[in-house]
Predict the 3D structure of the following.
Amino acid sequence: MSELRVAVLLSGEGTSLENLFERIEAGNLPARIEVVISSKTDVGGLERARQRGIPAIAVPRREHPEVEDFNDALHAVLDRYDVELVALLGFLSPFETRGKFDGRTINVHPALIPAFSGQGFYGSRVHQAVLESGVTLTGATVHFVDGEYDHGPIILQEAVEVRADDSVQSLAARVQAAERRLVPEAIRLFAEGQLRIEGRRVHRLD
């Protein structure tokens, strides 16, 4: 099977990106990272890509106040690469699929969508809200991207117990461990043609 050509969009240290690199290098994921794009400059995710000789490009959100202009700049970069899948891994800005990437863009969210999701729910804010709510389960979700925050059809989810003595940091660590399992699996299923979107549902063909 040929390798799936992936673009990764991120805004931070790139731990999820590193996880993909490790899975690919171990021969466990039939994918190749073509380009890494960050909405911030001087972040660890860009450096991780550079260390492997992969194009690492910053498209600073602050230089493009309008969402449309920002996405124009993102797509101008993507147009230079032959990309089959766009993976938003800790990308903190809106990405417009614009037809070209409909059904070909995935996002990872550190909660069980639709709970604790939507605009303003990202990073530690999600885990803080989970702890304050008193729920006993949270988790991680990988989903296809549509025109709304954290809204598209769900590919995979994994539940994570919320413990009585959890801090934001301890809960985040367990949720991130779930993300490290889910993201490569979602990419593998996509690469193998095992996912079909029907309305709000994703059906697995395997």
In short: The radius of gyration is 16 Å. The longest helix spans residues 168-191. The chain has a mean pLDDT of 96. Strands lie at 4-10, 31-38, 56-58, 85-88, 105-109, 137-144, 154-161, 195-198, 201-204.
